[in-house]
């Protein structure tokens, strides 16, 4: 990759070299798991962590940025043995070879988690976690068995909850260690004792919270198989809700805490009283409903008995006869009324066809027409007289006599109207028509004109 011919030179800048080296490290090595001791730990104000990872023979600088270290529960310190997941690279600005860490946990805890995952996969493959094999909790639980420490807080919590919710429930404790190398075997023996005695309806196996190491006995393979084959329904109640063990997967029921386990295997006395009250109400209601049904049936039977009595039958027949009688009477009256109506119509039509009345109507109509004709002729005569008067007025307006009466005159020469002086000459005899007579004149022109 870095070879070069004798005739050419491949010259890099420092930044190019660091970038290439970083690319090679990230692509060739990539992400790794590393076990080391931490030193020179610095938590920067930016939230990033800077530290050195070392063993007895070597060391390497490392950084864990804020986004990654916010998900880590632990706070590392000088000398801690840790297990990290990191990517190998180079900080290009200074050319420093370093690790960028994205996960960190204590070294021992990491090994335990690895063992936990391996056992979990193994048992799951064998079917120990199958829901088909799990037993259901009994609907009625009178006696509860508890496998835990006799002096631990878990037992106290369980007893407190049971005493509050179901004080009549009996509790049998099978004491055992719940932490340490011999704890798992003691828990197995306690379960065997409960199976042999057959004195409990359900078995709680658990303890209070703690670290992964404290709870490790509940990840024991032998204990897991014992729970799987246990004929008594089992409840796993180990630690807090965030704590998960192999027993949680194998047991028939998992409770997040011992107190929650006690609630699962008990019925609250208040809830029980409410349930009893509800059942009592349901019983009373059912009895009341049944009584009402029987009463209704009795009423029906009584009614049928009354209906079949001979006196009732006779009354029913009389009612039918009366009904028929009323029906016939009503029908006769309707028929009679219809015939009367038809007779009245015929009589009215006969009266309308009488000749005397027809003649009277015709005479009356003739009189009306005569009166109307007289009125029409009178109106016509008045209209014509009015039109004649208007025409006379108009004729009077355009008559020559009317013009002459206003001082005008008409001059004739031999019956021809004189319209201009040029139509006359000296000595002509002319006639002037006035409104009240005629005047004859002789024409004589003024010589000076």
Structure description:
The chain is α/β, with parallel strands linked by helices and 449 residues long. The chain folds into 4 domains: 14-105, Nucleic acid-binding proteins (OB fold (Dihydrolipoamide Acetyltransferase, E2P)), CATH 2.40.50.140; 127-267, 3-Layer(aba) Sandwich (Rossmann fold), CATH 3.40.50; 276-336; 404-442, no CATH class. It has helices at residues 14-28, 66-69, 107-126, 153-165, 183-197, 221-229, 246-250, 258-264, 269-307, 310-352, 355-398, 400-405; strands spanning 31-43, 49-54, 59-64, 81-91, 96-106, 143-148, 170-175, 202-207, 234-238, 253-254, 410-413, 416-417, 429-434, 437-442. The strands form 3 sheets. It has a 5-stranded mixed barrel. Strands 7-6-8-9-10 form a 5-stranded parallel sheet. The protein has a 4-stranded antiparallel sheet with strand order 12-11-13-14, with no helix packed on it. A hairpin with a 2-residue loop joins β13 and β14. The relative contact order is 0.05. The mean pLDDT is 86.
Write the layout of secondary structure elements.
Layout (H helix, E strand, L loop, with lengths): L13 H15 L2 E13 L5 E6 L4 E6 L1 H4 L11 E11 L4 E11 H20 L16 E6 L4 H13 L4 E6 L7 H15 L4 E6 L13 H9 L4 E5 L7 H5 L2 E2 L3 H7 L4 H39 L2 H43 L2 H44 L1 H6 L4 E4 L2 E2 L11 E6 L2 E6 L7
Parallel strand pairs: 3-5, 6-7, 6-8, 8-9, 9-10
Antiparallel strand pairs: 1-2, 1-4, 2-3, 4-5, 11-12, 11-13, 13-14
Helix pairs in contact: 4-8, 5-6
